[in-house]
Amino acid sequence: MKGHIEIIGATTNNLKNLSLRIPKHALTVLCGPSGAGKTSLAIDTLAAEGNRRLEALAQLSRGNTSRPRTVSISNLPMTLAMKRKLHLKNRHNVLSFLGLDALLYQLFMACGKRPCPLCGAEIRSWSLQEMTTAILESFSKRRAEVLAVITHPSATEVSPEEALNLILDAGYAKAYIGDRVFDLNREFEAALSLCQHHPQQISIEAVIDNFQIDQSNRSRLTEALRFAERLQKQGISIRATPAAPQYFSQSGVCQGCGRQSFGITARHFGLRAGTTADLIPPQQAELLSIKIGTQDLGTILTFSMEDFGKYLNTLQIGSSYLPAFQAARRIIALSAQLGLGHLGLMRPVSTLSLGETTRLRLSKQFQEPMQGLLYILDEPTLGLHPHDVSCLLETLRNLRDQGNSVLAVEHHPGIVSNADYLIELGPGAGRDGGSLVRCGPISEAPTISSELPPPWQISKCRHFENYVRLEGACLHNLKHIKANLPLEALSCVSGVSGSGKSSLVMGTLAPAADLARRKRGDVPAAEYQKLALKSFSLDQPVSGVVTNTLGEQTITQTALVATYCGVFDFIREAFAGTLMARMQGYTASHFALSHGKHDRTPGFCKKCRGLGVEIFDSQSGEQQSQTCPECHGLRFNKELLKVKYKQLSISEFLSLCVDEALSKLEHITQARACLQALTRLGLGYLNLGQPLCTLSSGELQRLRLAVALKPRRGSTLYLLDEPSAGLTPSETRHLAEVLHQIRSEGHTIIAIEHNLELIGRADYILDLGPGAGPYGGEIVFQGTPAQLCACQTSLTGQALKSHFSAVSICDIIGTQVTIQPN
Ligand SMILES: [Zn+2]
Ligand SMILES: [Zn+2]
Question: Which ligand sits nearest to residue 628's alpha carbon?
Answer without folding.
Answer: 2
